[in-house]
Design a protein that fits this description.
Protein name: Ammonium transporter
Number of strands: 2
Largest sheet: 2 strands, antiparallel
CATH class: Mainly Alpha
Strand order of the largest sheet: 1-2
Membrane topology: Multi-pass membrane protein
InterPro entries: Ammonium/urea_transptr, Ammonium_transpt, Ammonium_transpt_CS, NH4_transpt_AmtB-like_dom
Helix content: 55-70%
Number of domains: 1
CATH superfamily: Ammonium transporter AmtB like domains
Order of helices and strands: HHHEEHHHHHHHHHHHH
Family: Belongs to the ammonia transporter channel (TC 1.A.11.2) family.
Structural class: mainly alpha
Number of helices: 15
CATH architecture: Orthogonal Bundle
Subcellular location: Cell membrane; Membrane
Shape: globular
Amino acid sequence: MVMGKKLISTGLLLLLFMIVADTVWASDGVTDSGTTAWMLTATTLVLLMVPGLAMFYGGLVRTKNVLGTMMHSFAAMVVIGVLWPFLGYALSFGPSVLGGLVGWNPDYVLLRGIDDSILDSGIPEYVFAMFQGKFAIIAPALIAGAFAERVSFRGYVVFIALWSLVVYSPICHWVWAEDGFLFNMGPAGAIDFAGGTVVHISSGISALVAALFLGSRRGYPKNVMHPNNLVMTMIGAGLLWVGWFGFNAGSAVASDLDTGRALTVTQIAAAAGAGAWMIIESLLYKKITTLGVVSGILAGLVAITPAAGVVQPGGAMVIGILASVFCFLAIQVKNRAGYDDSLDAFGIHGIGGIVGALALTFFIREAWMADAAVAAGGSWTVWQQFGVQAAAVVITIVYAAIVTIILLVIIEKTIGFRLKETDEMTGLDQSLHGEHGYGLINLN
């Protein structure tokens, strides 16, 4: 009898628990701890990319500029780290204003309006805002590679602050906000899963414009400017590769099949890009360089970024290979044309982003195209999607180029951007920061 009562009581408790649990998990605004844990991890991985970029760029410049170059990446963490929660998130993900040019939500200023907000994906909006903020940080830091060794720190800080507000935030809004016009172009929008257009094309084109506007480093290309520490560059590339898993897989804003797919194709494209660059160098130069390998890694990573959510492993491999080929060719063109994109920011990020944004069209999953056709109310072809992708690429290039040149002119005419000759010859480390990166100083 006692045993029967215990069984009945236990059964009732289990039933009550199931009812309560079902109510809790079915209710809106409840945090999904698993997805939140992954997004916290992804956010951390993306931030890791910034010191990784600092090491990558820092190792490629001359000894006298290593600290000044690394400071460009760290300054982006500081400046955009403050500016993003203050205005950037509101401009990027607020409702469209000014005819869709940008977003705006006063409740997002200093993130005041999201204190209790849980997104449909089950993560606190704080986490999403911080995840997106890391993209906003690394985008202007990438540009610094184009004008390394020849700009003032003050001018750079003002430039990245303004660029983030008037270039990055509008493009981010167009592509990723639910009412952005590129997000809604065609039945499924312009595909940019993790930032090929928003981050890499925008920063790559801006980098090219800046390199052309500022002119070459003094002595370039007559004087050979050797990297000071390729070991550090390789470590930086490794950190970028690891961090890129958060960059791409985190952009699923989930912890599910799409996350696993994005992570897998990211790995494959990076390896394929590096392998292709190794083959190119072995055929042309009979040697495989460490700089070539890390360049191939980055080319593959950049190109798969917009495609990570829609292609399969085979497509990722082809995209990685194509990226290496086109990025390698872009660097050869730069060398012949004679313009000084110091660390090939345009050659890798601009070209790689364009290749990925366009090439993904031909490797989209059939199920994705079928869904797009249904959304279109009939059929939707690969070439129609290619047109959408091309339009997004062209719009991004034109807008980023025009606004960047305006910013550069304003900064150069007011506070100055290009370093004085004496400061440039002395080096960024000593002239701007009063320090030396290494104990043994070599000013050449």
